[in-house]
Amino acid sequence: MGTMLVTAGAAASQKIDRRAGKYLTFQLGNEEFAVQVLRVREIMGIQEITAVPHTPDYVKGVINLRGKVIPVVDLRLKFELPEMEYSQRTCIIVAQIDNHGSKLLIGIIVDCVAEVLTLQTTDIEDTPDFGSGVETPYLLGMAKVKGKVKILLDIDRVLTAQEVMSLGPIGA
Q1: Residues 6 or more apart from 29 whose CB is under 8 A from it?
Q2: CB–CB of 107/72 below 8 Å?
């Protein structure tokens, strides 16, 4: 029985270790979020976005990134935060997401990019239980840095598989 506990403990610490590393932090309103730097392909200022009919409100459209057409999602709207006018600090983070083995590039509009942080295992806590009926599969955990909490996003799960599939032909 002691062996099972050690194995379970080792698996838990491997999960935590997988989350340690470099993160790009950004703001949406007063909250700070972070995504793993390894997933970030590019950061660019806001630019002209071509609207695509019959897409959800949070899908702003597509941009041409060096000959590749990629979908752009406004993360404020995806997270049901109030819409805000874009400013000079508004950025598009181009992230690579893994959707069941296929890699897609998606632009994510954020209020502003803050910094790159290196997070240790000890900086990261599991996402708290928010009660029944509250699903947070897109959260990797919470990081405590200099007295503030940063919300770590699992970029592969911010958009559900169904949402990604609807963007698939655009992003392919």
Answers
A1: 76, 81, 82, 84, 111
A2: yes
Per-residue burial over 138-150, b if 16 or more Cβ lie within 10 Å, else e, is bbbbbbebeeeeb
Contacts of 138 (CB under 8 A, 6+ apart): 153, 154, 157, 158
CB count within 10 Å of CB 158 equals 22
pLDDT digits (tens, 9 = 90+) for 50-76: 999 988 899 999 999 999 999 999 999
- Model pLDDT for residues 1-49, shown as the tens digit of each residue: 444 444 444 444 445 468 899 999 999 999 999 999 999 999 999 999 9
Residue with token string 């009926």: 133
The residue type found at 119 is L
Residue type, 163: E
